[in-house]
């Protein structure tokens, strides 16, 4: 079984083949997703909200992400494993290197960080030291207090231009994947077409190269608020494996997200 890599995701992008990814935080779900053919599992700091019941991702620590990364990495073979760098764990170069190393030692193949141009030096430093990086733009939940809530980003010409510039700068700095969260679908399409690297969307419309959902949202078991851009695949199938396979199928065919799970400009 060939492990999914940045190169294989890039090949999919180049061939116009869409790919499906999910978050997971434990060995049982991670193995099931791996077996079903999910290309990438993110140990997101969303774990603060969906596992710990917090109202934001801010309380999550590096130790917690490392613990869940170990659980996921030890039970998967094919899928790529990406671990989130939590809030304030990449504020200085020293902190960044130490914390990224902890997540890589726990089994991550890549780390993900939220932010624009201000992160470029940090990204270059990590890549130079052998740590692949995934960027994250749009609604970056660690900045919820700056945004004044979980709000759609990138609406209006100036915000859209800013987001496209940030994406291009991050790519130049060395990110190998980019997550776009909660932005208008036409903007996400422009970003995906402007970048060489694969772009993964959540609440960003159907024209990104890949899609990601928080696993609890796609299974309809989220305790709190369920975002409108998600879809309950368990309700449609009644079986977790079938739900994941249907999600993969709909992403690959360009059926998910549909217009009702997307935002306009
Ligand atoms: O923390 C997370 O799960 C994420 C995804 C929603 C992309 O960042």
From TrEMBL:
Gene Ontology molecular function terms on file: 3-methyl-2-oxobutanoate hydroxymethyltransferase activity; magnesium ion binding
Subunit structure: Homodecamer; pentamer of dimers.
Family: Belongs to the PanB family.
Transmembrane segments: none
One cellular-component annotation, GO: cytoplasm
UniProt xrefs under InterPro entries: Pantoate_hydroxy_MeTrfase, Pyrv/PenolPyrv_kinase-like_dom, Pyrv_kinase-like_dom_sf
Subcellular location(s) per record: Cytoplasm
Leading EC class: transferase
UniProt key word Metal-binding: yes
Main location: cytoplasm
Required co-factors: Mg(2+)
GO BP terms in the entry: pantothenate biosynthetic process
Cofactor binding mode and count: Binds 1 Mg(2+) ion per subunit.
Record: active site: 181
Highest taxon listed in the record's lineage: Bacteria
Catalytic activity, EC: 2.1.2.11
Name of this chain's protein: 3-methyl-2-oxobutanoate hydroxymethyltransferase
UniProt: 3-methyl-2-oxobutanoate binding residues: 45-46, 84, 112
Binding-site residues for Mg(2+), renumbered to this chain: 45, 84, 114
Keywords noted in UniProt: Cytoplasm, Magnesium, Metal-binding, Pantothenate biosynthesis, Transferase
Catalytic reaction(s) noted: (6R)-5,10-methylene-5,6,7,8-tetrahydrofolate + 3-methyl-2-oxobutanoate + H2O = 2-dehydropantoate + (6S)-5,6,7,8-tetrahydrofolate
Role: Catalyzes the reversible reaction in which hydroxymethyl group from 5,10-methylenetetrahydrofolate is transferred onto alpha-ketoisovalerate to form ketopantoate.
């Amino acid at each position: 079984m060939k492990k999914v890599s940045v190169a294989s995701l890039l090949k999919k992008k180049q061939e116009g083949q869409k790919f499906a990814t999910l978050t997971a935080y434990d060995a049982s779900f991670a193995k099931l997703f791996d077996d079903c053919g999910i290309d990438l599992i993110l140990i997101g700091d969303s774990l603060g909200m969906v596992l710990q019941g917090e109202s934001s991702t801010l309380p999550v620590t590096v130790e917690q992400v490392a613990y869940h990364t170990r659980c996921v990495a030890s039970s998967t073979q094919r899928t790529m494993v990406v671990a989130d760098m939590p809030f304030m764990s990449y504020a200085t170069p020293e902190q960044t290197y130490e914390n990224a190393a902890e997540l890589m030692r726990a089994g991550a193949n890549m780390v993900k960080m939220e932010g624009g141009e201000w992160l470029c030096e940090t990204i270059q430093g990590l890549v130079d030291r052998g740590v692949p990086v995934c960027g994250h733009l749009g609604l970056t939940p660690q900045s919820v207090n700056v945004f004044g809530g979980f709000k759609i980003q990138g609406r209006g010409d100036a915000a859209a231009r800013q987001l496209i510039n940030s994406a291009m700068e991050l790519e130049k700095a060395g990110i190998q994947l980019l997550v776009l969260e909660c932005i208008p679908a036409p903007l996400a399409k422009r970003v995906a077409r402007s970048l060489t690297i694969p772009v993964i969307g959540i609440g960003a419309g159907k024209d990104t190269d890949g899609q990601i959902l928080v696993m609890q949202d796609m299974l309809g078991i989220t305790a709190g608020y369920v975002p409108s851009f998600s879809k309950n695949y368990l309700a449609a199938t009644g079986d977790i494996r079938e739900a994941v396979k249907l999600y993969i199928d709909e992403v690959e065919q360009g059926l998910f997200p549909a217009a009702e799970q997307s935002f306009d400009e």
